[in-house]
Amino acid sequence: MNYLLLVYGVYLPVTVLLTVWVARTLFTNGRTFLVDIFHGNEPLADSVNKLLLTGFYLINIGYATLTLRSDDPVNSYQQTVETLSIKLGTIILILGGMHFFNLYVFYKLRSRAQNEARAYDFVANKQ
């Protein structure tokens, strides 16, 4: 039996499903932040959200396919599970890292938008 085919057969579907799940979660819940950042401009927020979703898919699925290859010999079920755990663990860590990076970017954008709004309110109230 070719154990690498088993690794590939599990790795790709699980990676794609994880990527889609995380991306949909970010897409759905990130919209609120984007609408706030863009001061209620929902069409702009939705457009940026879709672009972020597309980029997220491209980066993660692209990386997953690049790391599909395995140079380590896989000659048993134990080695199959070990190889699969390394590959999936790496993808999960990358997805988690990208998730927190996105949260950080949203936080910084929102903070900047709030500071600009406060400055505008201050200037508007002075006049």
TrEMBL record:
The chain crosses the membrane at residues 6-27, 48-66, 86-107. It comes from the Bacteria. Keywords: Membrane, Transmembrane, Transmembrane helix. This is Uncharacterized protein. It comes from Hymenobacter telluris. The lineage of its organism: Bacteria, Pseudomonadati, Bacteroidota, Cytophagia, Cytophagales.
